[in-house]
Amino acid sequence: MMQEEFHRIRRLPPYVFEEVNRLKAQARAAGEDIIDFGMGNPDMPTPSHIVEKLVETVHRPRTNRYSSSRGIPGLRRAMTAYYRRRFGVLLDPETEVIATLGSKEGFANLAQAITTPGDVVIVPSPSYPIHAYGFIIAGAAIRQLPLTDGPQETEGFFHALERAVHHCVPPPTALVLNYPSNPTAKVVDLEFYKDVVKFATRHNMFVLSDLAYAEIYFDNNPPPSILQVPGAKEIAVEFQSLSKTYAMPGWRMGFAAGNARLIGALARIKSYLDYGAFTPIQVAASAALNGPQDCVDEIRQIYKVRRDALVSSMARAGWDIPSPPATMFAWAPIPPSLKHLGSMEFSKLLLQHAKVAVSPGIGFGEYGEGYVRIGLVENEQRTRQAARNVRRFLSSVEGSNSILPDESSAGPKVVAS
Ligand SMILES: Cc1ncc(COP(=O)(O)O)c(C=O)c1O
Q1: Which one, 65, 82, 150, 191, has the greatest CB density within 10 A?
Q2: Which pLDDT belongs to residue 13?
Q3: Alpha-carbon span 40 to 387, nearest angstrom
Q4: Cβ(365) – ligand 1 distance below 6 Å
Q5: Amino acid 16: pLDDT
Q6: CA of 241 to the centre of ligand 1 (A)
Q7: Which long-range contacts does 154-161 make (Cβ < 8 Å, 24+ apart)?
Q8: Residue from 178, 244, 251 whose mutation best tests the ligand 1 pocket (most atoms within 8 A of CB)
Q9: Is residue 411 part of a domain?
Q10: Distance from the CA of 226 to the center of ligand 1, in angstroms?
Q11: 253 found inside a domain
């Protein structure tokens, strides 16, 4: 007899963003121009010297063959050189670094490699979905770590962490961190990582730090690496991505660095699963890491201009959005007059009435409610257009009874104003 539902599929609820995506597709099919801040998908071209290196390498003999799962030696050396240059961290290219098919693949496969049903992992909420689902797919259990706002943030973090660890049965295998954060755009300093390393060492747990936004920062404040903390290599591994730094999201190239046992575990599982990225991609990725970095400055500058346009024009439209210090996202509290709707309904209304797509905070976990995530993936002009649409929408909401939270039906109704 056919099984009811496959064990792992049951652990994967339909994607929360699907609802908004469906409405977006419908609106587009009806010919509407939707300004789409929904996805974290970089829209600028990959710098030409990286593309040229790929093309040149494709023409070389034997690059069509299976590549190396851990990454070709030149790429692993380029990755360690980046760590030395950027963070002053020395890594062994043989044992402390591994290339991954994007950081997401590396994260998910490490989760598979190190946990088993019955294990518990501490994952922040809100978070990028794979941080929880990598472990959920592996059969492990998640203990959420609520990330709070406010002046006592760091203190609040350790208080919540202490509590989470205290109540974990069995004790947690690992803690996931992601700063600069997707979706909240929060950043931390090296002192924070020092405290984390001390804490994790004391509690005998690993730390998996996702540093995908290492190079997407503003205001001249480069985010630190947890590996800068003495002793961090005993317990921590860090994920890096070329997707945002060099606008290479579709190329699928990232890497993991740090604790040799964790890197070894990831290497082992990957040796069964894949043959590594296409060699020309690995060669081009080496060129990206070793080559001139002014393209990174340019990419950073593009996001910064968009960020400033978004924050200032939305403020004029009546929506106060904190300016993100890093990442390609703004984490926007729902305007107070509409907060009661929740992030999903608010996102739907914004799509229908302002023609602006955002990601509802609830899609990033329970503690993402009350916010929406706005990706800096539309150009300045369209960002300003979005703010004009939002202003009209908000004033129609506040001006009359245009939005009637209709208790008799599933969601609020909007009537023409
Ligand atoms: C925090 C975070 N980690 C990982 C990823 C995935 O990056 P990659 O393309 O390297 O798999 C993203 C992409 O949006 C992200 O925001």
Answers
A1: 82
A2: 83
A3: 19
A4: no
A5: 75
A6: 7
A7: 154/188, 154/192, 154/195, 157/192, 158/195, 158/199, 161/122, 161/199
A8: 244
A9: no
A10: 18
A11: yes
| Residue 370 belongs to some domain of the structure | yes
pLDDT of residue 402: 55
Number of H helices, E strands in the chain: 14, 14
**Residue range(s) defining the domain that contains residue 14:** 7-45+295-397
Residue with the smallest CA separation from ligand 1 atom 2 is 212
Asked whether residue 398 carries a pLDDT value surpassing 90, the answer given is no
The domain spanning residue 59 has which CATH number?
3.40.640.10
Q: Are residues 57 and 35 in the same domain?
A: no
Where residue 408 falls among pLDDT bands split at 50, 70, 90? very low
Ligand 1 contacts CB of residue 254 (under 6 A): yes
CA distance 29 to 33: 10
Our answer on whether the CB atom of 359 is closer than 6 Å to any ligand 1 atom is no
Judge whether residue 250 has pLDDT over 60.
Answer: yes
Ligand 1 lined by 40 (C-beta under 6 Å):
yes
Of the candidates 258, 290, 322, which is a domain's last residue? 290
pLDDT digits (tens, 9 = 90+) for 7-64: 888 888 887 788 888 999 999 999 999 999 998 899 999 999 999 999 999 999 999 9
- In whole angstroms, give the CA distance from residue 40 to residue 323: 17
User: Considering the entire predicted model, what is its pTM?
Assistant: 0.93
What is the total residue count of the chain?
417
> Is 415 within a domain?
no
Q: What is the CATH number of the domain that holds 14?
A: 3.90.1150.10
